[in-house]
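User: I'll paste a sequence; please echo it back and then give the predicted structure.

Assistant: Echoing your sequence first, then the prediction.
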Amino acid sequence: MNLQESLLAQCRFPSGTHGVDLAVSGGPDSLGLLLLAKAKGLEIHVHHVDHHARPSSGQEANAVRQICERLEVLFTLHDVTVEPGANFEARARAARRDALPVGVLTGHTMDDLAETVLLNMMRGAGIDGLSPLVGDPTKPLIEVRRNDLHYFVADSNFQPLYDETNDSPDFRRNRVRHELIPILCDVAGRDVVPLLARQASVIHEERAWLDEISAPDLARGLGDVDCRELRAWPSARLRRWLRVQLSAHDADGVHPPSSDEIERVLGVVRGEVVATELAGKRRLSRSAQRLTLE
């Protein structure tokens, strides 16, 4: 079995359809996704987002267009403008997500999964954050190693684009990739990426089970349950229900409340305080043993 056959065996492209939308920046990961989808015989529509964040972005868009012409696949350019300033990366991700079609496939690999697990751990994430990307149908390369994908692209007749920001220590993910993971591998005496990926997969299965058994709870709204009943619930059950009920939604996704916020909310449920402030200028209060979020 050659490298292409091995990688295709690891890919999880959507079944039951021959048409796919691909997000292709032109880097080795997304280019590898495109080449593997082509080798799979899929009908491909490539989407490239130009943030105009670098002087070379127009050249990069033209390079991706030319690759698509050589491969005879449909190409669409999405022009977006992201103003410079704070949280540029987050705002750029949100703009890219808004521009791309729903269900577009991306080139995230097992190494991206491991990095995201570690980043979420450093943010103090719960089990949802420790099992990211797993089971996501838009991530067909999640079982593929980044180095294998890059070797595959290097052996092709296509030249990937190079984004110099991927080496900048100014971005936390880059430091996790280039510094933290090598240290963990050295300390463990083995490659920790498959270990982190396997842990995420196991946690994802447990999440699915918890979602199933907690479905009746989650169907009840914040004001539907008497606080006297909530106080009788096991702590894990109550915390899980509160995280879902109090999650904030914005252009960058869904954000569950922090551990500190949950502790303050528990004080409201227990009757220790009448109300507490939450992120997003929200206020949770208790009246007549019922919770209200404003």
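The CA atoms of residues 53 and 79 lie 11 Å apart. The first strand starts at residue 19 and ends at 23.
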